[in-house]
Write a structure and sequence with these properties.
Distance between the termini: 19 Å
Largest sheet: 8 strands, mixed
Shape: elongated
Strand order of the largest sheet: 6-10-11-18-17-16-15-14
Number of helices: 17
Number of strands: 18
Radius of gyration: 29 Å
CATH class of the largest domain: Alpha Beta
Number of domains: 2
Structural class: alpha+beta
CATH architecture of the largest domain: 2-Layer Sandwich
Mean pLDDT: 93
Amino acid sequence: MNGSNSENHQGSQVLQQRYEKARALEASGLDLFPNDFRKDTSVQDIVSQYGSWSSEELEGLQTRFALAGRIMTLRSFGKATFFHLQDQSGQIQIFVQKKNLGEENYSYFKKYDIGDIVGVQGSLFRTRKGELTLDAEMVRLVSKSLRPLPEKYHGLKDVEARYRQRYLDLAVNPQTQEIFRTRTRIIKGIREFLDRRDFLEVETPMMQLVPGGAEAKPFTTYHNALDLELYLRIAPELYLKRLLVGGLEKVYEINRNFRNEGISTQHNPEFTMLELYWAYVDYTHLMQLTEELFSELALSILGGQVVSYQGSEVDLTPPWPKLTFHQALEELGGLGPEDYQDWARARDLVQKHGENVQEKEKLGKLQTKLFDLLVEPQLIQPHFIVSYPTDVSPLSRKNEANPSLTDRFELFMAGREMANAFSELNDPRDQRQRFQEQARAKTGGDEEAHFLDEDYLVALEHGMPAAAGEGIGIDRLTMLFTDSPSIREVILFPLLKPESK
C-alpha cells in the first residue's frame, strides 16, 4: 500500500471511529448539537484580568466563569483530565475531575475528542507549574466534531490546503486569525480616517452594462428577466464620478472588484479596493492624504511607521520621494531616452525580457511594461511615481504644460504598486476622444482596453467639477502590514482551481 492510500485508509478508520463514538453518545441520550449553553466571558477577558493573579489571590475569588470553544489538546490521568480550550481570543487550560462532574457526566466527557466544541463552567486556580487553569464543575458538549482536526505540525502542511480549507487553517493556526483581525482593523481605520474628513461612504453597482474605470478584462454574466448580458465591475470609478456630477463632493467606497486575469502572489480575480473622489482638489492633495493615511494606520495598528516586510524594513514616515515616470526609467531602470522613446527599440527591450508585444501596441504601453520589468521591483521604500504617459491613462487629466503626460501618480513600496491616483478628466470632449482610441485598441485585439461608456459621457456633459480620485489595494496593504508573501494569505477564500477527484 503506498503512502497516499495508507493515509486515506487511516483517515477513513478515524472517521468511522468518530461516527461510532457519536452514535454511542447519542444512544445514551446525549444531544450532540444542543443550543442552550451560553458563555459569559472569553479566554482573553480572563487572561487579561486574572493572568497576573497569584494562587492565593485566585483562591479567594468567588467568581464562576462560563466559557465555550474547541478542545485542542487532551491529557487523561484516569479520574482527572487536562485539556486546552480555544475560543476566538486564545487558549486556556481546563482541569476536569470525575468527583466534580459525577460518574455519568465524566463518562460522557471521556468520549469527547480533540476538535469537539464544549461549554465549561468553573473557577480559576494555578497548577503547581504556575499555569492559569479553570477547574471545571461542568463540561457540556456543544457541537460534536465528526472529522478530526489536522495535527498541528503534520496537518495542513500544504499551503494550498490551508487556503482550500480555511476553516481548518483558522482553527489550528492562531497567526492566520491574527492576519484577518489586522485586515479588519485596516478597513475600520480607513473608514474612521475618511469619515473624520467628511467623506461619504457609498455603494455602486457590481453588475454593470458597461464595465469601466480600469484597463482590465471583465467577467460576464446574464440577467434572465431583463434578457441582458452584464459585466461584473472591474472598478467603481465611473459611478463614483457620476456622484461628483450630482453634487457629492467627497465620496468613497470599499469595494469588491472582479478582473478576468491571471492569478499570482499579487493578483486574485476577486479583490478589495478603496476608491475615493474629492472635488476641487488635484492629485497633489491626494499625495499628502495618502501619506497621512498610511502613516496613521501604521501607528495605530503596528505601533510605529517602520514595517518589516519579507526581510526589508519599509519606512512609512512622510514625506515620500517623488520621481517622474521617465526619471524612474532612467535612474532606476538604467535606460536612456533613446531606449524608451523609440517604439522599435522599446519593443525589442520588452521582448528581450520575455514579455509579449502586440503589433499596434502604443509607445506608452511599452514604456509601462519596461517600468514593470526594470523599475517596480526596486521600489522597496515608498515612492510616488508621477507624470504617466497619456497613452496608458485614459481617465486622467492631461498635464497643461505637456499634454503627452497626465497629472497622475502611482504609489509603490515593497516592490509593487499600492495606489493609483490622478486629477480627473472632466472635459467630455477629451474623454470621448480617449474612449474612441480605447475602442480602436479593443478592436485591434487589446482585451483590457476601456469600453466606451456613452451614459458616463452624458453625465460629464452636465458638468463635473475639477476633482482628484484614488484607488488603494486593501489586499496588498494587508500583505504589507502582516508580512504576508502572497495575496492568498490575506483573502479568506481565494479562488482556487478545483481539486481533481
